[in-house]
Specification:
Blueprint (H helix, E strand, L loop, with lengths): L9 H6 L1 H14 L4 H28 L2 H21 L3 E2 L3 H24 L8 H32 L1 H9 L4 H26 L7 H8 L4 H34 L12 E2 L8
Antiparallel strand pairs: 1-2
Helix pairs in contact: 2-3, 4-5, 4-6, 5-6, 5-10, 6-8, 6-10, 7-8, 8-10, 9-10
Length: 272
Amino acid sequence: MTSHYLNLSLWQVGGATALILTNMAISVALRLGLARTLLIASVRMIVQLLLIGVILQYLFALEHPLAVTGVGLVMVLLASFAAVNRTQRRFRDIYWHSFIAVFSASFVVTGLALLGILQVKPWFNPQYAIPLLGMVLGNVLTGISLGLDHFMEGVARERGLIETQLALGATRWEAAHGLTSASLRTGLIPTVNAMMVMGVVSLPGMMTGQILAGAAPAAAVRYQIVIMFMIAAATALGTLMVVMLAYRTLFSPNLQLRSDRLYKREKAGKSV
């Protein structure tokens, strides 16, 4: 069977708007209050994708390490902000902690994949570097957001129990160990669930995209396996790092729970 790539016209893409209009119609009919949000999200998505399409086309022609690294850093910065913006509680250095975790996990794992596994030459080839980093970042920010939110909510909810354990002689790690472990599990749940049903219930985006572009299914499967292991490793590293940074912020070396450093997003500056 001869495979070929179908190039979509703007009219065909425009026709796909009927699909999102279905969602908006359901929202209006059932009074869900999501029609305006769906419209804004759709317009924002279109603008962002058109913009990144122009940028990637420029990068593909340029193929310069500084340009690729710069775009990667911007992506990391936006992902770190998005991860924190999904949480309900904050503390002073939370954005900085998120950036450290996202940057470390995504750049280390993507770099190892480019240099050691895929052996891309040059390593900054934007055809590989940017898409791989983007897929990793999308999952890392979800894991960090879930893990961090679970940890901070747990600190606020179990403050009395934690302070009792500390007063009875427990170390700060003994008092926080259960909550830390639960937060890591929470951050990894989406990745684990995706891996469990991949190839049986769902066909992942990376694999589907390559097949639509004309790649052999066997080759697309091999790429998808590499991507999923990258995502799993980066999500685990990023979630672990951000939770441990939050732990060091909220549990002082003097065996005190610094819950006064937490505040809710809706009422910034008010401690819990």
